[in-house]
Amino acid sequence: MLLEQLLSNAIFSKSQIIAGHNGLSRSVQTVNIMDAPDIIHFLRPGELLLTNGYFMKEKSETLLELMTKMDQLKCSGLAVKTKRFALDIPQEVIDEANRIDFPIIEISSVEHSLGEILQRSTSIILDNKNDELQYSLTIHKQFSAMIMKGDGIPEIITALTQLLNSPILLLSSKLQVTAQSQHFKQPRMQPLISAAEAMLSGLPAIQAAAQLCLLDPALRGYRYMELYPIFTYRHEGYLIAFQPKQAASNQYGLTLEQASNVIGMEMTKRQAVKERSRRYKNEFFSDLIDGFIGSEQEALHRGKKYGLRQLGTWLMLAARKDEQIGVQAGMPKNAASLADERLISERDLQYELIKRHFSTLGEVFVMFTKNDLFGMLVFIREKVWEESQFLKQLAAMTTQLYEQSQLSISLGIGNPVTNVLDIGLSYNEAVKALQIGYQMKKTRFIQSYQSKDISYLFRMIPYDELKQFYEETFQCFSSTEENEQKELMRTLNVYYDTQCQLVETSKQLFVHRNTVIYRLDKCEKLMGIKLKDPAESLRFRIAFAIEPLLRVGRGEAAHR
After folding, report:
1. Which of 200, 460, 518, 553 is least buried, going by the fewest C-beta atoms within 10 A?
2. What pTM does this model have?
3. DSSP state letters, 229-269
4. Residue 291: pLDDT over 70
5. Which contacts of 320-329 are long-range, i.e. CB under 8 A and separated by 24 or more positions?
6. What is the pLDDT of residues 467-526, one digit of tens each?
7. Please, what is the average pLDDT of the chain?
8. Do 191 and 216 contact (CB within 8 A), yes or no?
9. 409 SS3 class
């Protein structure tokens, strides 16, 4: 409770404020009695000290030193029975108390001992704490009930405005307005938003409730900001109330605190729903790209909610942050866990930033994530589609994204496709285009996939011929178990993709170099050839290259 609230009780009716009147808004948490010169070592912030000043009678400078240290400790004030031992408070102490707004209360006329004053004051503080707790529970229930019946954050802001009779503002962690009270529909209130954003932009993220004073004289109607940070699993922003003077009671802050807690809960719920929806979307596109969806009918059925239709033209883009941030080897387990959480948070932020900037291009698209890449499926409107114009827009977008958010990304672009099952091919082309750009040591680039590569020639060969070539090539693995067969073929594929580099193969497979050597030796024994033989390596490279075409062909055959 506030010191002035405590002094308004009957037990202090005959007390007198002799200095530090402007400090009566200090908070009182507890009350203590001084009976020793070293009492400062036993005091805590928010504590009111009761004393008869006996040991200070002969050394007046002791009182000045005690008061200065109590102010530094953020104690509430000093209540003195000066007449008990004829203590004279020097003028310099009174002047200093007035300067630092430290309350000194004369309690000689209070007809109770210091022990009784301590007991009754403690009882008053505890009763007040109980009232505050009950008030907090009531307010929390009120806001929670609103959420339970379907009201959202704007309704909470409206209810909060009515309770506090103050302008309310909700800012994101990027200091963008996400909700506001009706006050800000008035043009004269707009400078408050600018003043709050300007003040917070110059400060590090505030982690606890704070009261800030606006210094702009044009805002004299609302000089103070009560600010409460909003948290989910990360810092989401601030709930701010503006007022002309400091709050007269703790209930003002308690109301804001409960509102910020409930808003944080609502944001957490929204994020959970969004993350679940995003996970389903990621799983669908991952299955589509990896060939686990066997028919066009199944792809259209599952992709209906993402806008996929039987007749359409699509283009895949793959985006990636240029400088990947990972957990360093050798980090402590808890530090690695924190780094993982931070990385997830950063990925979510990158996702939202890319999505927001891509939306400004005016194209219809669906965005998803796959491993460390961001995928964008663009729905091409053929009558108005201009590839050159689209590439210029992408370049402008990446530049703007870097300048505004310091996020450097690069983009790979696949070829347009008209069959929903070919979306995976377009995505793989986009990924390869991205890899080509990075191999050329470029950043913030846009790389298109060359339209007529070897896969273009393979598409001209009948499906049955491709299938026969593929099966004959890998017939040598038929004697192994299915899991081992997949493991060996995957190792061989990566080995050829990395130009037969053992170290790079082990990195991409996340296995030890010796494991790669063991698997390759086994492949040579099963096939009876040398893996680096030009003719044989070409045969296997071709077989791996036509594998995606076979998956598409199987899906089309099943659909027919």
Report:
1. 460
2. 0.53
3. EEESSSEEEEEEEEESS--SSHHHHHHHHHHHHHHHHHHHH
4. yes
5. 320/372, 320/373, 320/374, 320/409, 320/410, 320/434, 321/350, 321/407, 321/408, 321/409, 322/408, 322/409, 322/410, 322/443, 322/444, 323/408, 324/372
6. 899 999 989 888 889 899 989 999 999 999 888 999 999 999 999 999 999 999 999 999
7. 85
8. yes
9. strand
